[in-house]
Write a structure and sequence with these properties.
This protein is an alpha+beta fold and about 525 residues long. It contains 15 helices and 20 strands. Helix 6 packs across helix 7 and helix 13 packs antiparallel against helix 14. The radius of gyration is 29 Å and the shape is elongated. The protein binds one RNA strand of 76 nucleotides through helix 1, strand 1, strand 2, strand 3 and strand 6.
RNA sequence: GAUCCCGUAGCUCAGUUGGCAGAGCAUCUGACUUUUAAUCAGAGGGUCCCUGGUUCGAGCCCAGGCGGGAUCACCA
């Protein structure tokens, strides 16, 4: 079991022991922080606070801060280090004669390392080289690091020895966050997106609710679930793949607008767009339809972009995309005709199959007409839609929970917003006819018995709820991870999820089963 | 699940035709009281992802496996 320690780990453990022998507490309890690094850099005033050697400044800027030692330059009886806290980094100047007897020589120089967390009290000044720094008058170890931190060096914007190994960074995200300020920034932006959206919804009076993660019948999306087991009840349960059916029960119950921001779980492959657990926002609003919802989505997404960037624009790699309202609204069949030259409206299943084959797609007998249309769209249209656009009016067989279109036969009132070639959200006028809903479920069950592992289950309780009467409603689902990717310009979902799922590092002999 | 690429010191990487395992940073020892990729002098540090094979000899060649990345498939 005992792992062999590296030389540097041995050295740090010996340092820990020596600290304890010297009576120096290696793990502190608290430190009164008065300033963060960024505050000092911002508030420092040369006319008030600057002073060269010895000369007293007009007014001392007294500061107390805490953070991690990121670099050290020891020059005999004085040293410089960079301290990093949540706000950024600042240089600290440490002089032997300003610290207690022997502390500098026996503790600071010998027993502290890059990666240790310390508290510093002193005053701000500007060095001869022009860098605003903190002259330490008190220094205390708050946490001894027993592992060496991957050390990066930087000059004039160039970074050396940067940790680049993706696996290292995902597995040891804590280290990734320490050494990459841009990664910290992305996750702060993610938090702002989620809180910004919550505020947007709350301001409009929608009620945030919580619905079950563990469900006896899963539904609301086409996906395979994770299955688990409740021991005391002796019953199988599924982790939710969507919140939809529970939220609409609440619309039946008399809430006129409810939303939930939560994890959904889908038992499918991993890719740069898919993590098995991901964050979804679903919203349902009574007495509204999908036209209204399109305007709502435009306003929400535009406002989130402005919140993050100060303007309704995002940059992804080389491209800049405007998210300003209004967005184009294009019926699905028009979008397909635009890109492929084929009008698929009113074609039967075999005609659709031959068109798709003519375009070079592989079509097999299990694929229904809806699926074929979806394939054509996904292959030839979606990737080319860079500026935001609402694609509307989908085939009914692709959308078992959406309401039939009020004028277009065979279609439902559904839209997806596509940005940068990817779906950003999915929404529809909700089906509130319990008789139609039952027959749609039955179609799904039939698909399931033909081997479609993603077909929905028939949910009797949901039908019972609809039979009491659900007001007309508009529903929306937004993948928060993909929204974050878009708004922060990331091209892998793993870069917007703090701890993305990875295979285990090494075979473990622990049983994954609970007690 | 398929294909391609990758896996060498704490980190970033080199490693010739198959011939004693290398560099920079980090670490250790010493010098240095405003440095900043600090500098100068010296030292230590390796399961070359794992298992097997070929060979006198494998980091390098071959087979299988593990992990990661990218693309595809599946999938929103």
């Amino acid at each position: 079991m005992a792992r062999e320690l590296t030389e540097q780990e041995e050295v740090r453990r010996e340092a820990l022991q020596k600290l304890q022998e010297l009576g120096v507490r290696p793990y502190g309890y608290s430190w009164d922080v008065t300033h963060h690094a960024a505050d000092i850099l911002e508030d420092f005033d040369d006319t008030q606070h600057a002073a060269d050697d010895g000369a007293e400044p007009a007014e001392r800027m007294e500061v107390a801060l805490a953070g991690r030692i990121m670099s050290r330059r020891i020059m005999g009886k004085a040293s410089f280090l960079h301290l990093q806290d949540e706000s950024g980094q600042i240089q600290v100047y440490v002089r032997r004669d300003d610290l207690p007897e022997d502390y500098y020589n026996t503790v600071f120089k010998k027993l502290l390392d890059i990666g240790d967390i310390i508290g510093v009290r002193g005053f701000a000044f500007r060095t001869r080289m022009g860098e605003i720094s903190v002259h330490a008058e008190e220094l205390e170890l708050l946490a001894k690091a027993l592992r060496p931190l991957p050390v990066e060096k930087e000059t004039e914007g160039r970074v050396f020895n940067e940790v680049t190994d993706k696996e290292f960074r995902y597995r040891q995200r804590y280290v990734d966050l320490i050494v990459h300020s841009d990664v910290r920034h992305i996750f702060r932006q993610r938090a702002r997106i989620i809180s910004g959206m919550r505020q947007f919804l709350d301001e409009r009076g929608y009620v945030e609710v919580e619905t079950p993660v563990l469900q006896p019948i899963y539904g609301g999306a086409a996906a395979r679930p994770f299955k688990t087991q409740h021991n005391a009840l002796g019953m199988p349960l599924f982790l939710r793949i969507a919140d939809e059916l529970y939220l609409k029960r609440l619309i039946v119950g008399g809430f006129d607008g409810v939303y939930e921001i939560s994890k959904d779980f889908r038992n499918e492959g991993l890719s740069r767009y898919h993590n098995p657990e991901f964050t979804m926002m679903e919203l349902y609003v009574a007495y509204r339809d999908y036209e209204w919802m399109m305007s709502f989505v435009e306003e929400m997404v535009e406002s989130l972009a402005v919140l993050l960037h100060g303007k309704p624009e995002v940059s992804i790699g080389e491209t800049t995309i405007s998210l300003a309202r209004p967005w184009r609204r294009v019926p699905l069949f028009d979008a397909i005709a635009e890109k492929t030259g084929h009008d698929l409206r009113g074609r039967d299943r075999d005609e659709l199959a031959s068109v798709a084959k003519g375009l070079g797609l592989e079509i097999d007998d299990t694929m229904g007409s809806g699926k074929i249309i979806d394939e054509v769209f996904g292959e030839f249209v979606e990737p080319h839609l860079i500026e935001p656009v609402f694609i509307t009016d989908y085939p009914v067989e692709l959308s078992p929970l959406a309401k039939r279109h009020r004028t277009k036969e065979g279609l439902v009132e559904r839209f997806e917003a596509i940005v940068n070639g990817k779906e950003l959200c999915n929404a529809f006028s909700e089906l509130n006819d319990p008789v139609d809903q039952r027959s749609r479920f039955e179609d799904q069950v039939a698909l399931g018995s033909r081997g479609d592992s993603e077909a929905m289950q028939l949910d009797e309780d949901y039908l019972r709820a609809l039979e009491y009467g659900m007001p007309p409603a508009a529903g929306l689902g937004v993948g928060m991870d993909r929204l974050t990717m878009l708004l922060t310009g990331q091209n892998s979902i793993r870069d917007v999820i703090l701890f993305p799922l990875l295979k285990p590092e090494a075979p473990t002999d622990q049983t994954p089963d609970g007690p």
